């Protein structure tokens, strides 16, 4: 090991042809490196599109167990995509291709409202063609579909526009008020992901009285404790995101929380949103959980 750079490393070659050969070899190495990078990118893109097509095919199936299999495959793909910026860019490109878009499939199948399945005609009884029967979405299917929606919107923010076109907020508020604890928890996480920087979805959230629905769940002492805690985390994230944005469609969220949860709980939520968060994801999650617990304690005192 040399403590100083060897004196011969700075020496110019006596033969000019050696210098030219060295430059040529460097240029060739750069070309080869670019080619390898390009081939790797193409390979990753092929693997990503294949994984998406396979998952989407099952997610469109008539039977719930097949749809769950497809949704779990898509969720696994999204988790792999989140590992690097390069794969996130590739995924974002796939979502500009209609056949590979996740959001429409979610709302046309797993998150399809049951009222859309009402029988409006009896013609199939008198025809020879068999009626196409689709099994209803199970609780597990809805929960996984919401996780896929959450991941898709976080990795590709433009997907929130597609979600708005399919009435995502209205569908999710229905899930929040009628489904079980498993789906409600996933719904709160997905809901915050589609509200971030999406004025259209925020307008829908206000029109659906979203704050009132979340506050009602949080005030219900008979509800699951973890779900109430998740409601507190949702409000903390929402206030932290909206704070300082006067033009936000839900800029009155602080006043709404004060009216629905009381002065003390609203003050705690507002104060928590004023402090910057650490860069460590685990510490952020821990801090959010603690703050939500304090808000819940303040609410239970009254």
From TrEMBL:
Pfam families: CDC14
Source organism, top-level taxon: Eukaryota
Region (Disordered): 1-25
Biological process per Gene Ontology, one example term: regulation of carbohydrate metabolic process
Protein name: Impaired sucrose induction 1-like protein
Organism the protein comes from: Arabis alpina (Alpine rock-cress)
